[in-house]
TrEMBL record:
It comes from the Eukaryota. This is RNA-directed DNA polymerase. CDD domains: retropepsin_like, RNase_HI_RT_Ty3, RT_LTR. It comes from Araneus ventricosus (Orbweaver spider). Residues 1-23, 32-41 have a biased composition (Basic and acidic residues). Residues 944-1101 form the Integrase catalytic domain. It is an enzyme of class 2 (transferase). Residues 409-591 form the Reverse transcriptase domain. GO terms for cellular component: DNA polymerase complex. Residues 1-41 are annotated as: Disordered. Keywords: Endonuclease, Hydrolase, Multifunctional enzyme, Nuclease, Nucleotidyltransferase, RNA-directed DNA polymerase, Transferase. It holds the Pfam family RVT_1. GO terms for molecular function: endonuclease activity; nucleic acid binding; RNA-directed DNA polymerase activity.
Length: 1128
């Protein structure tokens, strides 16, 4: 349909009438035909010149579209000896002719070209380019007609050459007799036939299944925002090199017409805008557009568009000398942060910086500019892409005006009349000040989808860090607005134009956000600094790092870099550079003489990262953690539970294993794993290991007798690799480790440390599998010695159990000062009840206060309680406002009601104490979560052995989540007589580890006669058996599959797990919480013996947190103390 854009309703006074769509206009209704005839008769014949005068520049006069639901009237036009097929389109305001048809006409007769300045628009409001307008005489039958035709730039159909529009129909008073398939011109009639045209107009709309463009996934678009969509085109169009798609009409969303290439999966990318204030959801497979072959379209290249001279000053008119002078004037000594240096160092560095003022810029006007490289933006097609400008937030409006004005004054952008147009957005920048700062960014996503890509090869972060770390002094230089320092070609400026509410502009320098900007800048900085690159100078895009071991050495290297930047006319930002620091942040790591570790900002990001709620968040988390994987031992195996959540078909369930892995990673990063720099003068060691789920390798060097890591490598095994035998997995780990560290190992001798004879085994095989042959063949290129070591001596194992010295355990047993004598005394004086009792005691009211007294030593209010017939116990009266503090301290190990009450009643008293304890313990949330209700089964109490330490029960708890000090198990030892518990955290369950800790126990408590354990392999090994026999200890074992035969230890384990789980703030703090638990467990009254284990083993109570506030009042004689213990 061709219609007028300005108004579809024209007044009758102008001799025109309301025109409708083809569906409404072309009808078989005879009465409608008569009405049309009468109207034309009333208006009379319209002069051609009158029609042409209406075609002015300000009116959009044409829009082209076709519909498959209609059969258009087709007629044959004759010109000299040539015949052309044309169709009548009553919805078109003008008539069109293809350039190929015009060429045939020009060969036979002269044509008259007419000057016309109009804009022709399609139904979808896209401009249709045309070459010119011509007056042509044609014949229908034997009758001649003259009409104005617009010559399009494209041959839009191979079947139809001419469109006869409404101007032709109106000028010649043509009537359509649809039922009889005739056209009536004055008194003559001519026949026509109906046909459904294909590719019949410059904007096509073939409503067939093969040309439909549908949405790939469900998409939600926020109000007044845009989003990139992935669309899928029918298989019939995937063979097209490129095609045009025309979006379906929708008032709520806007999608621009554009031309696209189809990828291998038949998908294309476009941008949709939500024009409403409501959220819009587009469903999968929604039909959003029609696709048409781009071979039927011809478009002008952007170079063909000619701009008119711009009246606004758009180029920086400052000369090179003026820019140099301005750089000198705007640079101040205060721009550099040198407070960390002493006065001599500061003056020396400052002098160097001020002398090199040419390489510093503080404004856009003094920004460097280079043509050392010439960026080129090659598009996959020349179809202009336009998008609507995004609204500028009010809070950023002033910034936008100032920023655009600064860029204009500096000549970085200029006003534009380009047919390309992309919106700008404003992103908040990090700022130390309270004032909001923004960054203006052009949304080039749609342009990037049709821009030819260039592969960029950036240096590995680990390589830079290894090269540069280990020095004493560091500098980091940052280029100011780095991309803006590169000129772009005039022919590419219009392709990068952007629009805003403030106008249309185009860059003259390389913009941020375009697809290949990073590629071209990397080319520039490499060309500038590549020959300076080495152990002391490295760069990653616009961040340059320089290292030295002394200030004079640093000055020399800084001057080298400054000279090279000045040669290329590149400038630095003085406010962002870091000068001469011993500890510096670069690429997310803190670099120092000791090596490099994650920066504080990155540590905060990791520790504050929330638990993932879906697969997308899992991918974000793993993407962040992969940046640190070379710092983490056995990374692949640790995160394996989380990685499994990404597998297709796996339901998303954040399990306990996932949480454990998440916590381990947070703890590792929180402890700042540090990697030392690689030293070429020291020998290299490689150790590898493999499990059923992952393999790992560590590159090591030695400092004296101690290994230190250079880098870690790990890889999760695929399902097929997990089917390898253990010895093949070990060989695979060696192969992958050497392959990963090839840059260090190739061409130099190293030592391979392994705890498996995998190489020897596979080399001696008569028939080696093909994959093993390939691995062994690869290893032949390397020079190494194989050192076979035991698993316990493997540096990998050593690192996995390496003690972390930074764990804060200084306040392990400190519970605060709430129950100090001074605080209790203060609270007693402030409490209404206790203060009243104190007042009556001072007034000597013995009738109501005969059980209370003031302690002469501490000044505290005390309460007398009789214990037995003759014994009287004095206890501190706890005021009501300290009751909760007392309960918290007593319940710190999270024992039950009775044990908590026993802890308190030894020293303290208040009315209703037992009820308060019971209510507090039963409603303590963390405690109740870790103590599920169980049915209590009563068993007969076994007969006790004669003496403490004679009979021991031992067992292992675990495997537990790896603790902060790299422990995985707990070795438990219980004395059967006293119930005294010793619980020791251990990294593994090897015989050597168990024997070492048993010896430690025996050295403190003496040798037992009997040891009871279960039938676990580690308790039946030859080493354990020989160890017991050498000490003449009888080893007894419990019944198989019947743990109740060691019921005392099993019950202790239950209490241990519940208590430690409640005490630990984090799951990996359990080894620290274990110490706190042991102290309180061994000093709590046992239900069987009615004494504490410590009392029975040592003959006395041991102070715990709640009892440690009383100062000793006297020192007892040694002989008297020993007498009491022996006769207890």
């Amino acid at each position: 349909m061709i219609k007028e854009k300005t108004n579809n309703k024209i007044s009758k006074e102008k001799g025109e009438y309301k025109r409708d769509s083809i569906k409404q206009k072309v009808s078989s209704n005879t009465s409608s035909k008569e009405k049309d005839k009468n109207k034309i008769k009333e208006n009379g014949k319209i002069n051609v010149q009158e029609v042409e005068n209406k075609l002015d520049e300000d009116v959009v006069i044409m829009s082209c579209n076709s519909s498959n639901n209609l059969n258009l009237p087709i007629i044959d036009l004759k010109f000299s000896d040539s015949c052309f097929v044309a169709f009548l389109d009553t919805g078109a305001n003008v008539s069109l002719i293809q350039p190929s048809a015009l060429e045939k006409i020009k060969e036979q007769n002269k044509v008259t070209f007419v000057s016309r300045s109009v804009r022709i628009h399609t139904l979808n409001n896209n401009t249709l380019p045309y070459h010119s307008a011509v007056n042509i005489k044609v014949r229908i039958g034997n009758k001649c007609f003259s009409n104005l035709f617009f010559v399009t730039q494209t041959n839009w159909s191979s079947k139809y050459s001419i469109i006869l529009g409404y101007d032709f129909i109106q000028k010649n008073c043509i009537l359509l007799d649809i039922p009889n398939q005739k056209i009536l011109i004055e008194k003559q009639s001519f026949g026509f036939y109906e046909d459904t045209p294909r590719n019949s107009s410059p904007s096509l709309s073939a409503d067939t299944e093969s040309s439909q463009v549908r949405l790939v996934n469900n998409v939600t678009i926020l109000p007044n925002s845009s989003r990139i969509l992935k669309l899928k085109i029918s298989d019939s169009f995937t063979n097209e090199k490129n095609f045009v798609y025309i979006p379906s009409c929708n008032a709520d969303i806007s999608i621009n017409e554009s031309i696209h290439n189809v990828d291998n999966s038949g998908n294309i990318i476009t941008i949709v805008e939500n024009n409403t204030s409501n959220k819009i959801t587009l469903r999968k497979n929604s039909k959003l557009a029609q696709a048409h072959s781009a071979t039927d379209f011809i478009f002008r290249d952007s170079n063909d568009f000619h701009e008119e001279p711009n009246e606004i000053l758009q180029v920086n008119t400052l000369t090179a000398d003026e820019i140099t002078t301005l750089r000198r004037e705007e640079l101040n000594a205060d721009d550099f942060n040198l407070e960390h240096l002493n006065e001599t160092e500061k003056n020396e560095i400052l002098k160097l910086l001020m002398q090199n003022f040419k390489v510093f810029s503080k404004s856009y006007q003094t920004l460097g500019c280079t043509d050392a490289i010439t960026p080129k933006f090659t598009l996959l097609h020349n179809f202009p892409i336009q998008t609507k400008p995004y609204p500028i937030p009010k809070i950023a409006h002033d910034f936008a005006k100032q920023e655009i004005q600064k860029l204009l004054e500096a000549g970085i952008i200029e006003p534009s009349t380009s047919n390309y147009s992309f919106p700008i957005i404003f992103v908040k920048k990090k700022s130390d000040s309270k004032k909001l700062k923004f960054r203006m960014v052009v949304d080039y996503r749609l342009l990037n989808s049709v821009t030819e890509s260039f592969k960029i090869c950036l240096p590995k972060t680990t390589y830079i860090l290894h090269e540069i770390s280990g020095k004493k002094w560091y500098c980091v230089l940052d280029l100011k607005s780095a991309f803006f320092q590169i000129k772009i070609k005039n022919s590419d400026k219009q392709k990068l134009a952007f629009c805003s509410e403030l106008g249309n502009f185009q860059p003259t320098r390389l913009p941020f956000g375009s697809k290949n900007s990073t590629y071209y800048f990397h080319l520039l900085i490499s060309k500038c600094l590549d020959d300076l690159k080495g152990p002391n100078i490295q760069f990653f895009l616009d961040d340059i790092i320089i290292a030295a071991n002394s200030i004079p050495e640093m000055n020399t290297r800084l001057q080298l870099v400054f000279d090279r930047l000045a040669k290329f006319n590149l400038t630095l930002d003085p406010n962002k550079i870091q000068i001469c620091k011993t500890n510096i942040t670069y690429l997310g790591f803190n670099i120092s003489a000791n090596g490099y570790a994650p920066s504080e900002d990155n540590i905060q990001k990791v520790t504050k990262f929330p638990v993932a709620q879906n697969v997308k968040q899992v991918q974000s988390y793993l993407g962040m953690m992969n940046y640190f994987r070379h710092l983490i031992f056995n990374y692949a195996e640790v995160v394996e539970p989380i990685v499994n959540l990404k597998r297709k078909g796996t339901p998303f369930v954040w399990s306990e294993n996932c949480q454990d892995a998440f916590n381990v990673m947070q703890e590792i990063i929180l402890n700042k794993p540090t990697i030392r720099n690689y030293d070429e003068s020291k020998p290299l060691f490689l150790t590898t290991d493999a499990s059923k789920v992952a393999l790992c390798a560590i590159l090591l060097q030695k400092d004296g007798e101690h290994f230190y890591p250079i880098e870690f490598f790990s890889k999760q095994l695929s399902p097929s690799e997990r089917n390898y035998s253990s010895i093949r997995r070990e060989l695979f780990a060696i192969f992958m480790g050497i392959k990963h560290f090839r840059e260090y190992l190739y061409g130099r001798h190293f030592y391979l440390l392994t705890d498996a004879k995998s190489l020897t085994y596979h080399m001696n095989l008569d028939k080696q599998p093909d994959i093993v042959k390939r691995w062994l063949l690869y290893l032949q290129d390397f020079s190494y010695n194989i050192d076979h070591i035991k698993g316990c001596d493997n540096p990998a194992d050593f690192l996995s159990r390496m003690q972390i010295e930074d764990v804060e355990v200084n306040n392990l047993f400190h519970m605060g000062d709430q129950l100090s004598h001074s605080n209790i005394k203060l609270c007693q004086s402030m409490d209404s009840c206790t203060s009243e009792i104190i007042k009556r005691i001072e007034e000597r009211d013995t009738k109501t206060c005969h059980k209370y007294f003031i302690d002469s030593y501490t000044g505290l209010l005390m309460f007398e309680i009789k214990s037995g017939k003759d014994q009287i116990l004095n206890k501190i009266y706890i005021p009501r406002n300290l009751v909760r503090d007392c309960l918290l301290v007593a319940h710190a190990p999270h024992f039950g009601v009775q044990k908590t009450y026993d802890f308190i009643k030894i020293k303290y008293f208040w009315p209703g104490m037992y009820a308060d304890v019971k209510n507090f313990c039963e409603n303590f949330c963390n405690c109740m979560q870790n103590k599920p209700k169980r049915k209590t089964i009563t068993h007969s109490i076994p007969k006790h052995h004669l003496t403490p330490g004679e009979f021991l029960a031992v067992d292992i708890v675990g495997k537990l989540p790896r603790s902060v000090d790299n422990q995985n198990y707990i070795l438990t030892i219980v004395d059967n007589y006293s119930r005294y518990l010793e619980a020791i955290s251990i990294p593994n369950t090897t015989s050597n580890t168990i024997i070492r800790h048993l010896n430690y126990y025996f050295s403190r408590f003496g040798l037992p006669k009997y040891i009871l354990s279960d039938n676990a392999t580690y308790f039946k090994s030859d080493e354990i058996v020989d160890f017991y026999e050498s000490l003449r200890i009888e080893h007894r074992k419990t019944s198989i599959y019947y743990p109740k035969s060691n019921g005392l230890l099993e019950r202790t384990h239950r209490v241990l797990k519940e208590s430690v789980a409640s005490i630990s703030h984090k799951v990996h703090d359990w080894s620290t919480s274990l110490l706190f638990f042991k102290l309180h467990y061994n000093n709590s009254k046992h239900v069987v013996t009615q004494y504490t284990p410590a009392e029975l083993l040592f003959g006395r109570r041991v102070n715990i947190s709640i009892h440690s506030y009383d100062d000793p009042k006297y020192v007892e004689d040694f002989s008297l103390y020993l007498y009491k213990v022996q006769n207890n």
